[in-house]
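User: Run a structure prediction on this.
Assistant: Running it now.
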Amino acid sequence: MAELSTLARPYAKAAFQAAVEAGDLQAWSDMLAVASEVANNQDMEAVLSHPGLSGEQQAQTLIDVCGEKLNEAGQNLVNVLAENKRLALLPHILEQFEHLKAEQERVVDVEITSAFDVTDATKQKLTQALKAKLDKDVRVTTTVDSSLVGGAIIRAGDMVIDGTVRGKLAKLAEAMNS
């Protein structure tokens, strides 16, 4: 899917620049989320890929379904995407836009996957430690994966900390085999 991300990048950057200039990152984030969700709908995907519809008709259909959730600038983006046959890129544009927005706001999303439920106290300690280490505000989400046996995997952007029993056993086995 790297190709789709590459195609989406200039649109995401343009949308981000427009949002910064308008001073309304959240409104753009909301618009892109709605448009992406609508474009990802199975029935809408069939309409947007229908060869009998012009790009203008596809754009207008998407705009009509989104309704008041898209302002004029958001509608212009949809029209440009339709004109260039790129409406399917909306989810990728949203993803990249959110990444740019997080960088601008100095926020990082952290996912903690652990073998058991993470207590609020542990979550708070991890949040504070990561905030100090990354020098950014941290938004934490947690998931449980019982196959980990024990410990946790922490993902923050491109940084991954594997503190699982399974991970430690794999490192030990690798060390013994070398």
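The radius of gyration is 21 Å.
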